[in-house]
Amino acid sequence: MANVPHRSVNHPGTLTPLEPDRPSPQPLSHSPSVVPSPTPPRYPQAPPSFRPDHMHSPNLLSPSNGIRTGSPIPRMSTPPGPPVFNTPVKPAAVPFRTSPATPQPMGYSSATASSLPVSTPSYYSNGSSTGSQRDLPDVVRMEEPIAADSPYVLFSANKVLRQKKLANVASLGFGAIVSAGREISPGPQIIQRDPHRCLHCGAYSNPYTSILIGSGQWQCVICEKMNGSKGEYVAMSKDELRNYPELSLPLVDYVQTGNRRPGFVPASDSRTSAPVVLVIDECLDEPHLQHLQSSLHAFVDSLPQTTRLGIVVYGRTVSIYDFSEESVASADVISGAKSPSAESMKSLIYGTGVYLSPMHASLKVAHEIFSSLRPYTLNVPEASRDRCLGTAVEAALAIIQGPSAEMSRGVVRRAGGNSRIIVCAGGPITYGPGSVPHSMSHPNYPYMEKTAIKWMETLGREAHRHNTVVDILCAGTCPLRVPVLQPLAKTSGGVLVLHDDFGEAFGVDLQRAATRAAGSHGLLEVRCSDDIRITQVIGPGEEAHSETHETFKSDPAVCIQMLSVEETQSFSISMENKRDIQGDHVFFQFAFHYSDVYQADVSRVITFKLPTVDSVSAYLQSVVDEAAAVLISKRTLLIAKTQKDAVDMRSTVDERIKDIALKFGSQVPKSKLYSFPKELSSLPELLFHLRRGPLLGNIIGSEDERSVLRNLFLNASFDLSLRMVAPRCLMHQEGGTFEELPAYDLSMQSDKAVILDHGTDVFIWLGAELSADEVKSAAVLAACRTLAEELTEFRFPAPRILAFKEGSSQARYFVCRLIPAHKDPPYEQEARFPQVRRLTADQRRKLKSSFIEFDEESFCEWTRSLKVVPPEPR
């Protein structure tokens, strides 16, 4: 870290004004100048009345105002944004990790806070004030209360313990789940001018900033240094400064429109015109092919008219379909044995064929192509058929990057926005580059698999470099060699999803994969107060190299290169205290930089202030059980790479519960049992679901399926992650309403229907008594299906929705995910599942007799086996 020169100060801990002409931070320029978009602006400029007359707005595109035109991750400006959130986060110089590691010390400036003129008393230091506003007529602290809930950032606790020893208890931990969030929408949070950033650490001005209104200088909440604002923050009062969104809202979006790529011709809607290339396995048997064709026909019918589509089919060779022939399916064929040469792809792309075409011009041709596909006819087992998936993806990348004549106008257009390749696979890659032998018993299989994984990872990075996401949707019963396919999806920013067949769920995922919003060139910066250290980051990204983002004198930020920018994904950030905290608050700031689907450069800045406390009880009351459970689960699953690891991690969950009870609970008088802290009453049950569910339990038998589920969970948004850990149980009631209940087997009442939402699967269970009435059960089933579809409407991947009757073979999928509470005594059943109180004595006897006894423990039995008293339900 570079040493920051000290100013001469008369009073340590006070603010010193900077020279009035000191410029704000100026990013370096790396690329060509910005080409303004000829299309109408999606993000309207702020009206002239937005600021008082004496305030000015810098020229939007001028490099002298701090914008790096054409920079890889530009920082922009505009008014603030969406909803209100609940906590802040701050970084330290910790590398991004995809595996557990010991906390590393962060680099911070040792310089102390600057100071005010000699005559001015000390006002602000580390979040607490030692003087009043009356003492400091020139100093305004732009602080407004914010709501406790955030759609983009969720902390495991809304307060921070001051004592390092207790705050860093590893069994509970502290951290945040962070998501880039939804697309920005017009509003006061959008700012279309340059941001004011700290010259020392790079943090942004925010609602907690202290400002010298006479000179417009502001103090950074992260490093406490003073910065100039080029006179913009000169004001007569605090109310005037509130006209600046960044000083009044905890979330703002700095937006710069235009496109950094020379030669790009913006479409009327670049989101829907970005190319989608289907890469289709042709080695399918007839039943699978029929389902796939139905899904593909529905898929192209659902695409917007401006979406440009490409179709590539692979087996032993690669067929790249030409849309210039309107009445027949025509394709250029290349060998799948090796990567296509640059010369061969150049001659193909610059030829007369049209390989990417907008749907309004090619819908009929696309249907013709899908109808022309034929089932595999050779007598070769599914797993042994030659599939050159690697070569096919290379060809798809080439046609996306190369020029493609647009049939309607004949203009050459380069890909804009996030391009997407969607692979429809029915078996492993067994031919050409990136392939593995047909049989895992091959003597050289381990080496060849390692080579194939490396090749696939390189191909994924190449796709990411070209702003293309590769999603792999697999179906069927053939082993897929997931360890080989996963790196291609992961490093490109896509997902790998397994399906039972190419039917309904596959078709829904196909549509959602193509239309989901995804930004590109993503970078996440996390900054926090000097008392906090970031120890681990889990999510769809990797440590950013210094050349990919601008750096500052004493920048403590943890910088993560995001492989894709999607609302359905999140980062889990673990933190700890570096020392005992003396101040009353700690600050956290998250900055997401990315290009959105409309080709605007966005910097979404979210700032939080959390109070610090000495009281352990006050801290525990602020813990958000569900967020803490998800953070713990992600740290646990990161280690559980294999089935053996998963078994070991169950024991780790047990030890975690015991340690929390020991550190934060109390011993029961005259007993060896410990009571679990009542403030965390929901946490043990959530972790019990984790250890017995599909993520760590024995529900899933296939190692491929377990691997895919684990990778999906580690990158998933908070909502999906929570559902994957602990299922949500909804019971249908008379009148068509639904009652939410604990996910216990006591819900399996013969006259009821129950929905169980477990993230990637949704089950609908119909009791035997209800099923006997065909008319009523059909109406109830329809209501349950409608609710299940509404609950999962925007979820990606789309879950399987399975319906079955009590006693059927499929009902085991449902039963094994419910806690066997029928084994508990009646008083505990009533305390934890109050709905049973409404049952008559006869109904309770019937319910009890319907259960088959297994060796599995109930939640209460499990906690007592750990020498912990089950916490009382809230």
From TrEMBL:
<comment type="similarity">
    <text>Belongs to the SEC23/SEC24 family. SEC23 subfamily.</text>
</comment>
<dbReference type="InterPro" id="IPR036174">
    <property type="entry name" value="Znf_Sec23_Sec24_sf"/>
</dbReference>
<keyword id="KW-0479">Metal-binding</keyword>
<feature type="domain" description="Gelsolin-like">
    <location>
        <begin position="748"/>
        <end position="812"/>
    </location>
</feature>
<dbReference type="GO" id="GO:0006886">
    <property type="term" value="P:intracellular protein transport"/>
</dbReference>
<dbReference type="InterPro" id="IPR036180">
    <property type="entry name" value="Gelsolin-like_dom_sf"/>
</dbReference>
<dbReference type="InterPro" id="IPR012990">
    <property type="entry name" value="Beta-sandwich_Sec23_24"/>
</dbReference>
<dbReference type="GO" id="GO:0030127">
    <property type="term" value="C:COPII vesicle coat"/>
</dbReference>
<keyword id="KW-0862">Zinc</keyword>
<dbReference type="Pfam" id="PF04810">
    <property type="entry name" value="zf-Sec23_Sec24"/>
</dbReference>
<dbReference type="Pfam" id="PF04811">
    <property type="entry name" value="Sec23_trunk"/>
</dbReference>
<feature type="domain" description="Zinc finger Sec23/Sec24-type">
    <location>
        <begin position="195"/>
        <end position="233"/>
    </location>
</feature>
<dbReference type="InterPro" id="IPR036175">
    <property type="entry name" value="Sec23/24_helical_dom_sf"/>
</dbReference>
<feature type="region of interest" description="Disordered">
    <location>
        <begin position="1"/>
        <end position="116"/>
    </location>
</feature>
<feature type="compositionally biased region" description="Polar residues">
    <location>
        <begin position="107"/>
        <end position="116"/>
    </location>
</feature>
<dbReference type="InterPro" id="IPR029006">
    <property type="entry name" value="ADF-H/Gelsolin-like_dom_sf"/>
</dbReference>
<protein>
    <recommendedName>
        <fullName>Protein transport protein SEC23</fullName>
    </recommendedName>
</protein>
<dbReference type="InterPro" id="IPR006896">
    <property type="entry name" value="Sec23/24_trunk_dom"/>
</dbReference>
<keyword id="KW-0931">ER-Golgi transport</keyword>
<dbReference type="InterPro" id="IPR006895">
    <property type="entry name" value="Znf_Sec23_Sec24"/>
</dbReference>
<dbReference type="GO" id="GO:0008270">
    <property type="term" value="F:zinc ion binding"/>
</dbReference>
<feature type="domain" description="Sec23/Sec24 beta-sandwich">
    <location>
        <begin position="520"/>
        <end position="613"/>
    </location>
</feature>
<dbReference type="InterPro" id="IPR037364">
    <property type="entry name" value="Sec23"/>
</dbReference>
<dbReference type="Pfam" id="PF04815">
    <property type="entry name" value="Sec23_helical"/>
</dbReference>
<dbReference type="GO" id="GO:0006888">
    <property type="term" value="P:endoplasmic reticulum to Golgi vesicle-mediated transport"/>
</dbReference>
<dbReference type="InterPro" id="IPR007123">
    <property type="entry name" value="Gelsolin-like_dom"/>
</dbReference>
<dbReference type="InterPro" id="IPR036465">
    <property type="entry name" value="vWFA_dom_sf"/>
</dbReference>
<keyword id="KW-0968">Cytoplasmic vesicle</keyword>
<dbReference type="Pfam" id="PF08033">
    <property type="entry name" value="Sec23_BS"/>
</dbReference>
<feature type="domain" description="Sec23/Sec24 trunk">
    <location>
        <begin position="277"/>
        <end position="506"/>
    </location>
</feature>
<dbReference type="InterPro" id="IPR006900">
    <property type="entry name" value="Sec23/24_helical_dom"/>
</dbReference>
<dbReference type="GO" id="GO:0005789">
    <property type="term" value="C:endoplasmic reticulum membrane"/>
</dbReference>
<feature type="compositionally biased region" description="Pro residues">
    <location>
        <begin position="35"/>
        <end position="50"/>
    </location>
</feature>
<keyword id="KW-0256">Endoplasmic reticulum</keyword>
<dbReference type="Pfam" id="PF00626">
    <property type="entry name" value="Gelsolin"/>
</dbReference>
<keyword id="KW-0963">Cytoplasm</keyword>
<keyword id="KW-0472">Membrane</keyword>
<keyword id="KW-0653">Protein transport</keyword>
<feature type="compositionally biased region" description="Polar residues">
    <location>
        <begin position="59"/>
        <end position="68"/>
    </location>
</feature>
<keyword id="KW-0813">Transport</keyword>
<comment type="function">
    <text>Component of the coat protein complex II (COPII) which promotes the formation of transport vesicles from the endoplasmic reticulum (ER). The coat has two main functions, the physical deformation of the endoplasmic reticulum membrane into vesicles and the selection of cargo molecules.</text>
</comment>
<feature type="domain" description="Sec23/Sec24 helical">
    <location>
        <begin position="626"/>
        <end position="722"/>
    </location>
</feature>
